[in-house]
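REVIEWER CHECKLIST
Item 1: Sequence provided? yes
Item 2: Single chain? yes
Item 3: Sequence as submitted:
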Amino acid sequence: MEYRKPLRPLRSVLAPFPLSLGLSLAAIIVASAAPPRIAVVDIAFTDSSGEARDQAAEHAARQRALTEGLRRDVSQAGQLESVSLDCGVGCTLDAEGVDKLRQRAREAGAAYVLVGSVHKMSTLVMSMRLAVLDTSTGRLVLERLLSFRGDNDDGWRHAGDYAAREVAATVR
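Item 4: Structure as written out by the authors:
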């Protein structure tokens, strides 16, 4: 008669599976818990102040700094991941243009798109209009019209910091 080693109980064979299944589920949960992506479009600028001095280069630099600051700062708290979305040639912020940007943001994997524009009314008075839309539905998630003083680096930076905090606090 030949001796056979007894078979291991089924429970001992399957024991590692719940652990590996649990780890797999944990990995899926962590992956799905990644912060939503927000595409930040280049911030536009208009000037109706009528000032004689050409400030185009200064305003272009401030636009870039504002856009870069928003992209950086909306994701600082870790609740959003910022993605750059260039406005591109012929980009407009009218309804049709914003819808095209929304679609491009969705194609880039963003859940939201932030569009905005700064308007200079005078040397002292500026306004910034921001909107965040859900890229899958087009639903307006956030809209702000901010007034700020000072057509200078500090004024623009302060407005950008405030806008980034508003977006980060509202969009999740």
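Item 5: Key structural point noted by reviewer: The longest helix spans residues 56-73.
Item 6: Recommendation: ____
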